[in-house]
Amino acid sequence: MGERKGTNKYYPPDFDPAKHGSLNKYHHSHPLRERARKLSQGILVIRFEMPFNIWCDGCQNHIGMGVRYNAEKKKVGNYYTTPVYRFRMKCHLCVNYIELQTDPGNCDYVIVSGARRKEERWDPTDSAQVLPTTPEQRERLALDPMFRLEHGVTDKEVLERATPTLSRLQEAQDAWKDDFGLNSRLRRRFREEKKTLREEEEEAAALRARAGLSIPLLREEEEDRRLAALLTLRAPDSYEEKQRLKRSEISQRSWFSAGTARAAGGALQKLGLGAARAPRAPPGPPPTPAGLGIVRRRAGEDGGGAERPPPAPRETPEAGPDPPGAAPPAGAAPAPSLVADYSDSGSESP
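-> structure tokens emitted (350 positions)
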């Protein structure tokens, strides 16, 4: 990086390559600039990427694997001849500092402080994975022929048990090998389903329009078809039976309706022909001229013997004319109905 930055740069007149060596030494600067500000303390600022998921102890937030930080890197020891480095970085969500260091013995990272690891580990034997041999096993394989033979037999048995599973996995992978063909079949299937759905929606809309419904109609299922096949919708009586019952009802029905029968009964009662007649009065004495309203007058009375016309009978609008043979009301004077005039003074009516 220093050579790249020193290429095609300005060289002052007093620059001496033999004395200064490079422009960085001439300017007394480090090629990493601000990242090397703590280099005197053995600390170098690098770009560090989180190796696994963690929980911050300061803000209790989750920090995912792959999040990058500007971390201070320094050497803290050795594992045999491999150096152990420690990284210190500040959480981007709070003021807490997180420290991690390498673990060359287990090929992993260890959290020193400021966070805790999110445990997502599992046992490889649970997923039937083939485990790599440990250093102790590798040493025995190199030195012990009998152990090497036993290990080979065991590996063959494991391979035989895993062969069917591996074959099925290979077939499943080969089935997805032709991406273009699978995509074409899938798109064809989607087009057919879309066309079917559109036809069903059109049929449902037409049915709602005919029936005047505003509710959505559900799709017809096979269970609905079986239930509809078990039901029989028919009238309890046939057409001929209905006609026969209707004719018998008409023949047994009265010709007059209820209102006409009542009106006819009232007219018969008024005419005295009805069944319910008023009881007749017992026969009384024979009628007399006075009872019949006959008045005898002599000749010459009332202006030369001119006859007066009989007065017209009075009728009340409320009661109507009295039926024949009815008695006059009490307290009323009998109206003269007939006037007789005799020329002979000495004659009397028979």
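The longest strand covers residues 68-79.
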